[in-house]
Amino acid sequence: MTSVRDRGQRGAEDRRELPVRPTDEDPLAASASELIGGPAGRRVLTGGRRWWNPLRVMVLVLIGVFALGMAQKASCYSSGWFQPGDPQYIHACYSDIPHLYSQRGFATDLVPYFDRIPDGISSAPDIHYLEYPVLTGLFMEVASWVTPHGGDMQHRAQIYWIVNSAMLLACAVALTVFVARTNRRRPWDGLFIALSPALALTATINWDLFAVALAAAGMMLWAKSRPVAAGVLIGLATAAKLYPVLLLGALFLLCLRAGKLRAFALTLGGAVGAWLVVNLPVILFAREGWAQFYTFSRSRPTDYGSLWLIIMERSGNPLNGVTSYATALMLLLCAGIAALALYARRRPRIGQLAFLVVAALLVSNKVYSPQYVLWLLPLAVLARPRWRDLLIWQGAEVLYFLGIWMRLAYVTGTKHHGLTADAYHLAIGVHLVGILYLAAMVVRDILRPEHDVLRQDGSDDPAGGVLDGAEDVFVLGAAAVRDDQPAAYEQPVGAPQGQ
């Protein structure tokens, strides 16, 4: 005769095989669904053989939201980017893309890293070569090849922005697909990306979305237990933007705890190999141009959006050693994250630890550009896919997005319309509190896994790849919960899932 416990375990296993509907587990999603007639049935949401499956719905939503973000830049597209004064800040529609088209030599067919930027073209006197990593430089160069060279400079810069926007839209679509496919039971998690207000507002400011999509692809491949391919994509992402290298640190800690160092070595080898394939030719033949990104990052002073700017402006201390201070704070935060990863009674999920290490970088960094929110976006979804918490964080970032442009309008304009220093410091504080709030929720989920929405059905780490279900072999402190004993905090079958 089958026991009640056996039936309960079988029921939990059956639940782990079914796709998760957002309206079933998220109270805010369930309430919001009333606007369109209430939660849909399982047959509709899982797609089955229907054309309207979750992925197609999310891609169409993403395209619509991205188009709204482009429309928000319309006043700058028509004239704001090219007028003297502060209209591009007053209308919060600034973008680096049209400005760097001429200032970094793309309009005159200079070859990035190989050709020196002539004096007087760049708005930054200490920039003599393109100050972006190699793969992002290639992205920018490809967009310039597609841009027609006829007509006046303003028109060509407009077309360059449109071409880059189309390429970045492809990156955004890919990002949504990668997040949706990272956890096969949660295809609708990509909707967090598709409906993100921060993505709509910041996607076409700069080229960060390219690296974010590559890093998300690496996370998806890791979830599918393909460590070499995951490493290659993380290496390519690091060749486009430096922050994805932190993902390797998160993977190392989790692989160390789970005794899966061979899988980490394969990932590390793939990452190093991919990075070298992209960078080595430029290092060999244009070393000075290649080094511009790294020397610029190291010598960059305290800038907008950072904790250090508040300290500097309120204390009057110029913080000449800000690079050392920022590095020390980052190392301290990383040490705390490492302790959390190795001491927690249950091994953290990869999404949780990856979010925390990138959040630590953004909190401690000496500059925070508004598009940096994209770095955290897919990691936040993997770490804590809760609409309430993600919207609180996104709301803080939207307020900062408005705050930075209003501060620049005040500083650059003759009429001083915008935010004073005190008001801008408050905007920075809101942005920092938003990140720290979401980080605190993630830490709580790690310390109290019964609150982790992805583990309430007894799962270990659905995006963990080779780590999913692995037993710990290296744990500091008290004995950890065994991964083959999830029932210690598993909810009864059919019980409502908590926050």
UniProtKB/TrEMBL annotation:
Protein name: DUF2029 domain-containing protein
Presence of keyword Transmembrane helix: yes
Compositional bias of kind Basic and acidic residues: 1-24
Highest taxon of the lineage: Bacteria
Membrane topology listed for this record: Multi-pass membrane protein
Keyword entries, A-Z: Cell membrane, Membrane, Transferase, Transmembrane, Transmembrane helix
Record region (Disordered): 1-31
Compartments it resides in: Cell membrane
Protein source organism: Actinacidiphila acididurans
High-level lineage: Bacteria, Bacillati, Actinomycetota, Actinomycetes, Kitasatosporales
Matches recorded under Pfam families: GT87
InterPro entries: GT87 (IPR018584), UCP010361 (IPR016570)
Family: Belongs to the glycosyltransferase 87 family.
Major localization listed first in the record, in broad terms: membrane
Tagged with keyword Coiled coil: no
Segments passing through the bilayer: 51-71, 159-180, 192-222, 228-256, 263-286, 322-343, 350-368, 391-411, 423-443
